[in-house]
Amino acid sequence: MAHEPGKIRNVAVVGHRGVGKTSLVEALLFQTGMVNRLGTIEGGTTVTDWDDDEHKRQMSLSSSLAHLEWQGRKINLVDAPGDPGFQGDAIAALRVVEGALFVLSGVMGVEVGTSRQWGRASEADLARVLFVNMLDRERADFFRALASISEQLSEKCVAVHLPIGSEHELTGIVDVLHMCAYMSPEGDKEGDPVEIPAEMADQAAEYREKLLDAVVETDEALMERYLEGQELDAAEVASALKTAVTRGEVFPVACGVATKNLGTHALLDLLVEGVPSPAKKGAPIEIEGTGTAAFVFKTIADPFAGRINLFRVLKGTVKGDANLANPRTHSKERLGALMVMQGKEHTNENEIGEGDLGAVAKLKETQTGDVLLDQEQPVELPNLGFPEPVMSFAITPKAKGDEEKMATSLRRLAEEDPTLLLRRDEQTGEQLLSGMSQMHVEVGVDRLKRRFGVDVELHPPRVPYQESIRKESRAHARYKKQTGGRGQFGDCSIVLEPLEGHTGYEFKDEIVGGVIPQSFRPAVDKGIQEAMLSGELAGAPVSGVRVRLVDGSYHTVDSSEMAFKIAGSMAFKQAYEAADPVLLEPIMEVEITVPDDSVGAVNGDLNSRRGRLLGMEPKGGITTVKAEVPMAEILTYSQSLTSMTGGRGDYHMHFLRYEEVPSHVAQKVMEAFSKEKEEAKV
Ligand SMILES: Nc1nc2c(ncn2[C@@H]2O[C@H](COP(=O)(O)OP(=O)(O)OP(=O)(O)O)[C@@H](O)[C@H]2O)c(=O)[nH]1
Ligand SMILES: [Mg+2]
């Protein structure tokens, strides 16, 4: 039986890396009896971190789906990875839900990842509930975290729960909405609410007042009565809060300890009350004019079960064994059994109703980002806005002959994760695997081996240098071979001129009086273009050159296209040497987000990478640094940033333009090139 859309809550669990999202999902499942014991990250026993690679690294690497029942509602939880390398999954998760549960560390407060996800949740206009976790840890401080939340995320964030005690003496939480308390179950099921301990009475009253202030702010009628000094009853406040939260006018801040299952009872209440149902909010992605529509937000490439697609029903009811159209591939997909996922486990269902999340296995071509419709019609596919990969490695199979297998397996991994990209660099000829971080690419490599049995090696990629010229030059070349029979004769004079910005190529035919017949002139051009593919400095392609073909001569019998091609290439090489050739390198624009206290280290480091600072934007403890940095210097930045910021930094970059390489650096590149050439000869 499908669930009524009004009784469903879809929640993406997001936040910075390692703040306890997966542990919290586990606690919620445990509290509601979906699992019988509270699994742990350390034991590799949580429902939503089920992959071997996740166990090995003790972190989430992809989104995982779970569900539970509370107060007669079905809550779907999408446990998203916090690491920026895997943010593609978090981005997609935020597109299929009505609400986001932001988990924060009580020690760290708001972090780079929190702010970034918050921005995305704002764009999607989601209801948001916050949970300050890890309050049992040393140096955890709920009120400090709360201050960072209201300063850096939104002033509309307001505490609804308070800790009783702190750090290792934390004994429970107070719920100032329902004016009750929960004592720490220390890993057991949380019991029913109890009375607020006497020593907490004043603080509870103070925060109750703050909560009321925030709530009446959103409700005029209530505000009037409140100002007149009338007592507002609990049900009224709860209902006004509920409305405000569902509309995104108030963001309640809860707290607790995921690993002890403290705070889950009150949190579940908040999710049911605060997150709007699909019936209330309407589909997060609009598809016009169709009866049934589902959106695939995640694809899992499993070598045994085949491909599994996780989807959200946008409209209508998806039935098992239905034939649905995929407008991207213009093909029909026959659905097999439908599944409701609980981590890696599933139960079969006959149908998945509107607003619900489900899964289906073994579709032929459907992948992340696709929609499935009851009938084919042109639709604009929702743009998930995945960021561009920021770093690339050259990838080669360890065993010769595995190239094809490597490519097909990587293509399957890319279906699962569109931010993992395999492409061939036309210039360097290398296969490049690009991803969002070094770890992201390395996890891809682990999966290649584990799932597809392909062993590969990663190397830093070659920098796609270019070459160009800085002044005009002229050369004359004659290619002549006359040794019995038909000979070869080509002869030309050319002038090279630099083009603006070191880009482009122009060929100007300025031959007068037919000193080279019309039919041979294109051959000169061709010869030059071939010579330009590999410049003399570092074997890099030459650009930014205008060639004028100004003079030449020919022989009625011996001249041929081939001879003029060779003459053109010879002339170019001569002229190039005289034209003050220069090496060009790609410059990247880099945007780095780091905690304020790392800005000094990061800027110093950029300086040593020949970076140019473009600007800095501090915002509530986190600074965005923009800079231009040569690609050659930033190939392995991921590791350095992690060590400079203790894993709290994040960056992305894109290609900007080519620039001349400073001569002392160019010297080294050229030396390396000639050494390589020597070695190749041996
Ligand atoms: N002391 C304490 N440790 C916690 C708490 N919650 C989680 N942890 C620990 O923190 C670590 C990270 O927990 P996860 O649940 O994997 O965090 P996450 O946010 O899912 O991490 P990613 O998905 O990788 O971003 C694990 O070692 C947990 O045992 C908590 O409330 N208190
Ligand atoms: Mg996790």
Using the CA coordinates, give the radius of gyration: 32 Å
Helix content: 25-40%
Which residue ranges are poorly predicted, with pLDDT under 50 across at least 5 consecutive positions? none
The hetero molecules present are: guanosine-5'-triphosphate, magnesium ion
Strand % is 25-35%
Number of strands: 33
Terminal-residue CA separation: 73 Å
Averaged pLDDT: 93
Going across the major beta sheet, what is the strand order?
2-3-1-4-5-10-6
Q: Describe the largest sheet.
A: 7 strands, mixed
> Rough shape?
elongated
Helix/strand structural class: alpha+beta
Could you walk me through the main structural features you see in this protein, from its secondary elements to its overall organization?
It is a single chain. The chain has 682 residues and is α+β, with helices and mostly antiparallel strands. Helices cover 29% and strands 30% of the residues. The chain contains 17 helices and 33 strands. It has a seven-stranded mixed beta sheet, with helices on both faces. A hairpin with a 4-residue loop joins strand 8 and strand 9. The longest helix is centred in the C-terminal third of the chain and has 19 residues, at 663-681. The chain starts with 7 loop residues before the first strand and ends with a helix. The structure holds guanosine-5'-triphosphate and magnesium ion (MG). Residues 21-22, 49, 60, 79, 81 line the site of magnesium ion (MG). Guanosine-5'-triphosphate binds next to helix 1.
